[in-house]
Amino acid sequence: MHPLVAAADLVVGAACPGCGTPALRLCRLCGEAVPPDPSTVDPPRQVGVPVVAAGPYSGILRRTVLAWKEQGREPLTAVLACHLAAAVVPLLDDRPAVLVPAPSSAGRWSRRGEDRMGPLVAAAAERIAALDVPVSVRRLLVRTRRVADQTVLGAGGRAANQHASMHAGAVVPERGALVVVVDDVVTTGSTLAEAVRALRVRGHGVAGAAVVAATPAPTARRRSDL
Ligand SMILES: [Zn+2]
Predict the structure, then answer these.
(1) Domain count of the chain?
(2) Which uninterrupted H or E stretch holds 82?
(3) 18 C-alpha vs ligand 1 centroid, how far in Å?
(4) Region 153-173: what's the mean pLDDT?
(5) Ligand 1 centroid from CA 21, angstroms
(6) Residue 24 maps to a domain
């Protein structure tokens, strides 16, 4: 974003997505309220590898992701990169990492979503490198066909929508490096599952997947909807 645009945002009332006080990013209090707290997503979402999320997709963290993704609040990238990096590190066991972004679905936010994930993954990689962990980002995955907007589909529809929709390039990762698929949010896990499938078809071992946030378990979500 151009600096003048960012400044104009503040003038016209950019607000902390957590509490609404004027701020370009999360305010200090909200930042302290949602520190990265990586844990394995439970129950597993049929991804075939461990999935680590830095927090639940709810409250302040959810509002921050939405403000970043849907309103293009670029200064929030640094906040979410901190979370994404925190989710990657537990999967590495002190080994080098190759971060592979999951391609977004077609849909309302797809083009913008692609634009957002690049800087997010790059910023997360910088944070991981600052821990003296060798890390690279490889865009190994591309879509082989158009997929529908996941947000309008149920769990079964999401899986069918994603299945066999990706193709992985054949770049050989660095020796000893662990491939980790990264995305912003995991819901049913169908996007991550397809990413893992496509990578395995090309012979890439996948150590796990890391995301900023995980939605509540599908059963819990249904219950809360009642
Ligand atoms: Zn706040």
Answers:
(1) 1
(2) helix 77-88
(3) 4
(4) 80
(5) 6
(6) no
